[in-house]
Each structure stands twice: as structure tokens, then as C-alpha cells.
């Protein structure tokens, strides 16, 4: 419905078309934005929408330059242009048309120009260079749409197919070429990876062997230092313990012997454990070598399969791969044969050095132990003598410097022992039969001859006073004394008896 006022304004999404008497040589006056006055009776107005229209174009069986029919389903977006010339053409041709009529008109134009464009291009140009194809469509379609007041906003090609399968074959060929090239690239990378892996494995084996050797050397040195320290500590302990009693020395010697036995057992267990670990390491190395060989074999199979599908380039790659494999195999064999032998050689040298060092240290330890034992015994004897000397000195001081009194006291302490020895001497005599020859008168003395014989036997033992006198010591008076007469009588009586033991 037209408004009553003569002043008309144009919205931004429409075009105001004023027609009637609008000017010399003009059929309509088109205004986009702003407004104008409409003269009654001689002028009238109408609006045209600028809203874009989306038109689906299902082009089927269009003949290409190669006489192959293809399907080009697409979608075109068109609309009325605001350019003066195109806008005037739209006012002249589309002013009273409905949107469906405008879309139908545009569809016919697009169909014809799209077929013309497809007929001027090959399938490769249409399928592979989409940008050039769309540009050709714009050059052919846009001028024809401009003639009726429309302009081309956008073209969208969804999918291009053909009934003969030519496009699929092109795609398969391109895909196959891409796959083959990818396989060649993969084979090349696998080759480089295998070479790098072999070099890395060889370097790793060498480094691991060197580190193991250094570790073993450090371990042996630490063990040697530990044993030296232990021996030093044991030596200091032995010296300290030598100052104690002899019983304690005996216990210490027994403990040292037990400790030495335990240490030897621990060393034996350690050596067994080290040999076991070395055996496990060698087994692991052999397993790793076997895995590398299996991987190289599998890689060779894959490379061979890839090379079979290739042509000249693949055959050249095969030659390079074989050279690389030969080099890698040579290096692997070198690493597998030479490096273990070098490692075994170093192990033997280290073991020999360790055994020699162990022998030297054990011999030195035995010599030091013997020396310390004799030194400890000498020290003990010296301390015993020092203690006795100090005791004698204190005894002399207690006797006010009278050395004779000191000797008498010491002899008195030994009286019990001397008597015990005399009793043991008589007790040990075995007498089976005693015969005594006598005149029977007993020289006028009381008692029988046999009784006198036994008494004389007892008296034949040296008296304590005589024993002390032999040592130059005079016993005190409280032990009694012996008169010369009794002494001479006892001696003559003892000499007059004759004893026969049978």
C-alpha cells in the first residue's frame, strides 16, 4: 500500500524506482538510499529488493572438451546490483517480476553459460584447477546476468562426477602415485633410520662397555680402599685390646678369626653375584643383538616388497639401500665380534690386576697381623715385668729398703708350694717290697728297724731351712730352727740305711 505523502525514502536493502516522466531519454530513476519527491499524476514509484537469491543448478551430463559427459552440481548466489547501469536494467526488466520468476530467468541463463564453460575445458582443468574453472564461470555467466539487472555474488561447486569413471581413475592414479611416492619416502626414511639406529647401537654398545669397565674399576678400587680401612681399624682395635688381659686377647683373636671367615664368605658371595650379573648382562647383549638382527631382517623384507612395486627410482633406491645394509651389517659384525673381544680382554686384564693386588694385600695383611701379634705379646710381657718391678719396688719400700726382708717375705709365700712339691715327690714313689738288713739291736734305740727306716726316708727330704739357706735366705724364728746336732744325726742315719726296691 502506497503512503499518502509524496516524499518517499528508500531503505538500505531496497531500490526505489521512480517511473513516469523522470527525464529526457530515461525510462526510470533508480535510487538506493536517501529519498525523493513523487509528482502526482506524472510519476509513480515501486521498490525492488536487494536480498540475494540462492539458485541450485544441478547440471547433468554436460559435454566437456574431451567429449566426456560430466555432472557439475553447483549453487549460484545472485542479486540485483546497485551499479547505475545494472540497476537501471533491473528496473526495466525485473520491476514487476516475482522472486520465483526472477530465479527461473536467472537459472536458464546460468544453465546455458555453465554448459558453454564446461564444453571449453578438459576434465583435468575442471577437476584439478577449481579456481580457474570458477573464474571461467564468472567470465561467462556474470555478463549475461548483468543484462537483466542481476550480478553474480558467489559460485559453489559441490562435487564433479562422470558416468564413465574417468575422474575416479584420475583420482586413483594420483592416489597411487602419491602412495608409491610415500612408500619410496618411507623406505628412504626407514633406510636412514636403520643406518642411524645401527650407528647408535654400535656407539651405545661401546659406551656401555666403557662405562661398565670404569664402573668395575671404581668398584674394585673402592673395595680395596674399604679392605685397607678395615684392616687399619682392625689393627688399631687389636693394639687397644692388647692392653687388656690375656683372656681378652684370646677372645679377640677368636673373634678376629670368625670375622675373617665371614669376610671371606662375603667376598665369595660377592664374586658369585658379580659373575651372575655379568652372565645376565652378556645374555641381555646377546638378546639385543638377536632383536637387532630380526629387525634388520624384517626391514630388509619390507624394503624388498617396496622395491618390487617401484620402477627405476625404486631400483636405484634398492641399490643404495643394499649398500647401506652391507655397510651396516659390516659395522654390526665388527661391533658384535671385535667389541666383545675387547671387553673380554679388558675384563681379563682387570681380573688379573685385581687378583694380583688381592694377593699382595692379603700377604701384607698376614705379615702385619703376625707382626702385630708378636708386638702385642712383647708389649704384654713388658707390662707384666713392669708390673712385677713396680710391685717389688713397692714391697721394698714397705720393708724400709731391707732387701733381705723382702726376699724372706717372698720365700715365705713359696713355703706352701715347696712343701706341696715335696709331698708330691714322695707320693709318686712306687715301692713294691722293702728289705732292711740290720743287726736287730737297733743300736740301743727305741723302735724297730723298719719304723726307723721310714722315719729316715722322710728325713731324707731337705728341710725348709736348708732349702731357704740354699737360696741365701734365713727363715724367721716363728717357723722354727734346726740345731747342728740334729742335723748331723739325721744325715748320718740316712746314710746308714740301705733300701732296695724290687
Could you characterize what this model shows?
The chain is an alpha+beta fold. Helices cover about 65% and strands about 10% of the residues. The strands form three sheets. Strands 6, 7, 8 and 9 form a four-stranded antiparallel beta sheet that branches. It has a three-stranded antiparallel beta sheet with strand order 3-2-5, with helices on one face. The model is unreliable at about 485-500 (pLDDT under 50).
Task: State the gist of this model.
This protein is an alpha+beta fold and 502 residues long. The chain is built from twelve helices and nine strands.
Question: How are the SSEs ordered, and which strands pair?
Answer:
Layout: E1 7-9, E2 14-20, E3 28-31, E4 35-37, E5 43-49, E6 53-63, E7 69-80, H1 84-94, H2 99-119, H3 123-128, H4 130-146, E8 150-157, E9 161-162, H5 166-242, H6 246-309, H7 312-398, H8 403-413, H9 415-427, H10 449-459, H11 464-470, H12 484-496
Antiparallel strand pairs: 1-4, 2-3, 2-5, 6-7, 7-8, 7-9
How would you classify the helix and strand content by structural class?
alpha+beta
Mean pLDDT: 77
**Order of helix and strand elements from N to C terminus:** EEEEEEEHHHHEEHHHHHHHH
Give the distance, in angstroms, between the N- and C-terminal Cα atoms: 180 Å
What's the shape?
Answer: elongated
pLDDT < 50 runs, ≥5 residues: 485-502
Calculate Rg over CA atoms.
67 Å
Q: Main beta sheet, described?
A: 4 strands, antiparallel
Question: How many strands appear in the DSSP assignment?
Answer: 9
Percent helix range: 55-70%
Roughly what fraction of the amino acids lie in strands?
5-15%
Number of helices: 12
